[in-house]
Write a structure and sequence with these properties.
With 238 residues, the chain is α/β, with parallel strands linked by helices. The protein has helices at 9-26, 41-52, 80-89, 109-122, 159-165, 182-187, 200-208; strands at residues 2-6, 31-34, 62-65, 67-69, 99-100, 128-131, 153-156, 176-179, 190-195, 226-231. The strands form 2 sheets. The protein has a 7-stranded parallel β-sheet with strand order 1-10-9-6-2-3-5, with helices on both faces. A 3-stranded antiparallel β-sheet has the order 4-8-7, with helices on one face. The chain is globular and about 40 Å long. Bound molecules: 2-amino-2-deoxy-6-O-phosphono-alpha-D-glucopyranose.
């Protein structure tokens, strides 16, 4: 694991964007798996700034998102698909045929997990998976206890995950989500984990450096190319 300490949210965004820019310089057609949440917002703004400045292009890049709420259609503002549309697809000028987001309202969720994995395979596998961290150690919607070999699946969401996800409209988050599995993430050629916010136990579990099934993030330690950019817990969150 390569651990980089970011002094503030701007540095986290800049360093994260540098990792993505380096990946796209190596392979413009790279497949990126992208997270939602507060942590990557500054990163997406920084990427958009570089695109506007003509310093970066994602026209050839392929995009999937990590996870989605089961039963929430992509057109719903509370969906992760809508988040990625708003913060990534539109501002970064992505090519529509290169974007495959989870369909939370899929009639057959199991078929949807297989379809998303098939698209990833058709695009040659994930080149760079960018991940956030949940307070209980989840990555994407791989909740505590998820086996390392688990592929894309329908996940029962932890209470803390649902509480953190509750939107401003007060609608309770769904009980289940669709997510890439730990196996899908570990198969990515590179991993970039972004950590911000008060998640003391999850941070501590990662720093112990031992794989622990109760802390899914520690499974990433088994990956040969893991970069972690960590914002000090006392710094203002993005
Ligand atoms: C949600 C998402 C995760 C994300 C996590 C952290 O649970 N499913 O993919 O990493 O929240 O969110 P935040 O960055 O807002 O702390």
């Amino acid at each position: 694991m390569r651990l980089i300490a970011a002094r503030d949210a701007h540095e986290l965004a800049r360093l994260g964007a540098d990792v993505i820019a380096a990946q796209l310089a190596r392979e413009p057609r790279s497949l990126l798996a992208l997270p939602t949440g507060r942590t990557p917002l500054g990163l997406y703004e920084e990427l958009a700034r570089r695109v506007r400045a003509g310093a970066l292009s994602l026209r050839a890049a392929r995009i999937v998102n990590l996870d989605e709420f089961l039963g929430i259609p992509p057109g719903d503002a509370a969906s992760y698909a809508a988040f990625i549309q708003r913060h990534v697809v539109a501002p970064l000028g992505l090519t529509a045929e290169h974007v495959r987001l989870w369909r939370g309202d899929a009639a057959d969720p199991l078929a949807e997990t297989r379809a998303l994995e098939a698209q990833i395979a058709a695009w040659g596998g994930i080149d760079l998976a960018i991940l956030g961290l949940g307070a209980n150690g989840h990555v994407a919607f791989n909740e505590p206890g998820t086996p390392r070999h688990r592929r894309a699946h329908v996940a029962r969401l932890a209470d803390s995950t649902r509480a953190a996800a509750q939107g401003p409209d007060g609608r309770p988050a769904p009980l289940e989500g669709l997510t890439l599995g730990l196996a899908d993430l570990l198969e990515a050629r590179r991993l970039l984990l972004l950590i911000a916010g008060a998640k003391p136990e999850a941070r501590a579990a990662l720093h112990r450096g031992i794989e622990d099934p109760q802390w899914p993030v520690t499974r990433l330690l088994g990956h040969p190319d893991l970069t972690v950019i960590e914002l000090d817990a006392r710094a203002a969150s993005p």
